[in-house]
Design brief:
601 residues; alpha/beta; seven-stranded mixed sheet; disordered N terminus
Length: 601
């Protein structure tokens, strides 16, 4: 009598056949999955399995986005590699190794009608975005790790000797064998930057580096030694300077592991929010503060926190020749017109002087001025954006209420309710939930479960930083985070500054203002879905490759559908990839660069 398959399973009379069928089913499932994830090795699956073996207690939490809850298209995702019908090629030109697309667009720069207000140092992005790869400098090697890098870097990584010769008498930088060495000197740091930092605090003790003053902007920063040494005081400094004849100064800073960005006070606003910096510093920064009706100083006033300080160390403060005296007279009138108060003015033992101004904490002084010059801004029609917005010629009103208060002392301010957060109770709840979310994700997954060697990470960028929770969760590691807020998303950058962190606005459809090979890790969390509605994913990936150092990582949290689109582009760049929890893609950039005629799409 024939035995039915159903009876075989029901009665288990043929254990060998039953086991064989089960084994075939398991192997089939395994093969199907392996075909589905052809770019992951068995080792990668073991890593992913070890991470996902302990799911979070709250399975509905937005932290994890389990696969069962992840949004999917009804159709299989399109393989983007079918659209990569081009060959990777090198960027061309003698300066290709340092190419910055939006600052090196010579065609646009040559067409400028004026350069009087530094228009040639501002952003002029090429269209379409270039899809070329940056060659490596000859002899490039993995950067020297922090903290040793603060004082010395490989010369071959930033092979620019011009500044060594130009500033040899000011102790900025010198060449020593295979290294560039930074002794901590500067134009105004005659006795060294450490002594200069102490001199500022001694001049005005209320500054209290690392407690009262946490977030600083250094204008025209040179090689950023001021910001580099303030890190010892628990102060983070956004150092900036233009890409100009002071060859590669910002590149030196970033290679040293010191926060810095390329920017200029020209005709457009700096890409920072209103009222966020605790202190702004300028040591011989070569900015004409009274230019164009005082617009450069009005721009500092816009971004300086109410009650914040401006430290100006320049020859008009302490020299008495006719030129300097005239500049000082103009500065006195200009600062008085915006109600800045001189709280200290002195000269140190080396003969270098400085003046410290303080911004008012209310608008009452503005209304008592004899002349309404500069005029008060029309707050109803005033643009709050800082992306491609012309410099203002008016004086913004000082915020009222809690926004005029000073943040809690560091480090308490990192976890305190930010002053700029909406007063809505739901906003406060969302902020604290976001902080908790990132603390758990970073400690449980990012630091423990992914193939990233965090001891090699110094310069980090969060490409869509939200409330800065990712940076806050990494605060105890010896690294710094550039928190980027995309211009097409919610404006949370003031909250980030309130927390004692810093960041910048940016549009990821364009190139970022930094040199090539300046970041060790790029992080994003569900960035690409909205981004790909406005620009091509390939252009964004090429920009990531430009910014990332060889040996550096990208850490991308996104939907599986979006990861499947990113994967072939990153693979074409010969990056090694691993996937965890079906949503965390880790890519590591190597030293590969294309050879002549090599097809890499």
């Amino acid at each position: 009598m024939a035995v039915s398959v159903a009876n075989l399973f029901k009665e288990r009379k043929y254990p060998f056949i039953f086991s064989l069928v089960v084994l075939v089913i398991c192997v089939s499932v395994l093969l199907l999955n392996n075909n589905r994830y052809p770019y992951l090795s068995v080792i990668d699956f073991k890593k992913s399995e070890s991470i996902s073996s302990s799911p979070p207690k709250d399975s509905n939490s937005s932290i994890w986005y389990p696969k069962s809850e992840e949004p999917h298209n009804s159709e299989p995702p399109q393989d983007i590699s079918s659209n990569l019908n081009f060959r990777w090629k090198f960027c061309q030109g003698p300066a290709a190794v340092d190419y910055i697309p939006c600052l090196d667009n010579m065609k646009a720069i040559k067409a400028l009608k004026s350069r009087r207000h530094m228009e040639h140092r501002e952003r002029h992005c090429p269209e379409p975005s270039p899809r070329c790869l940056i060659p490596l400098p000859k002899g490039y090697r993995i950067p020297i790790p922090w903290p040793k890098s603060r004082d010395m870097i490989w010369f071959d990584n930033v092979p620019h000797p011009k500044l060594v010769e130009y500033k040899k008498d000011q102790n900025w930088v010198r060449k020593s064998g295979d290294y560039l060495v930074f002794p901590g000197g500067g134009t105004q740091f005659k006795e060294g930057v450490t002594s200069y930092i102490k001199f500022i605090e001694k001049t005005l003790p209320i500054i209290k580096w690392g407690k009262h003053i946490r977030v600083v902007l250094d204008v025209g920063c040179g090689v950023a030694s001021f910001g580099g040494y303030l890190l010892d005081k628990d102060v983070i400094t956004m150092s900036f300077a233009p890409k100009d004849e002071h060859e590669a100064q910002i590149q030196f800073a970033l290679e040293r592991g010191i926060p810095a960005t390329l920017s200029v006070i020209g005709t457009q606003r700096l890409t920072f929010p209103d009222n966020v910096f605790d202190l702004i510093h300028c040591a011989r920064c070569r900015v004409h503060w009274d230019a164009d009706g005082g617009k450069p100083l009005l721009e500092l006033n816009r971004i300086l926190r109410p009650g914040g300080f401006f430290v100006w160390s320049a020859t008009p403060v302490y020299r008495k020749d006719e030129r300097d005296k005239n500049i000082w007279t103009v500065m006195v009138a200009l600062t008085k017109s915006i109600c800045w108060k001189v709280v200290a003015k002195t000269v140190d033992t080396s003969g270098i002087g400085l003046v410290i101004y303080q911004k008012p904490t209310s608008s009452s002084c503005y209304k008592r001025r004899k002349e309404n010059s500069p005029p008060l801004c029309d707050e109803i029609n005033r643009q709050n954006s800082a992306w491609y917005i012309p410099l203002g010629s008016c004086l913004p009103q000082i915020p009222t209420g809690k926004l005029t208060s000073w943040p809690d002392p560091w480090p308490k301010r990192l976890q305190s309710r930010p002053l700029s957060l909406s007063t809505d109770s739901e906003a406060e709840k969302a902020f604290y939930e976001d902080t908790k979310h990132w603390s758990a994700l970073v400690s449980d997954v990012y630091l423990e479960g992914l193939s990233i060697k965090w001891s090699n990470v110094r310069n980090v960028m969060d490409m869509n930083a939200g409330y800065g929770g990712f940076a806050a969760a990494l605060i105890d590691l010896p690294l710094w985070v550039m928190n980027v807020i995309p211009i097409d998303g919610p404006d949370t950058l003031p909250v980030i500054f309130d927390r004692g962190l810093f960041g910048i606005y940016h549009d990821w459809c364009e190139s970022f203002n930094t040199y090539p090979r300046t970041y060790d890790l790029l992080h994003s969390s569900f960035l690409f879905q909205n981004l790909t509605h406005r620009c091509d994913i390939i252009d964004v990936t090429v920009e990531m490759d430009r910014m990332l150092r060889p040996g550096g990582w990208v850490l991308i949290q996104d939907t599986r559908n979006m990861i499947d689109k990113l994967r072939p582009v990153l693979q074409s760049l010969h990056w090694s990839l691993t996937l965890s929890r079906d949503q965390f893609l880790v890519g590591k950039k190597g030293f590969w660069r294309p050879t002549e005629g090599e097809l890499d799409a």
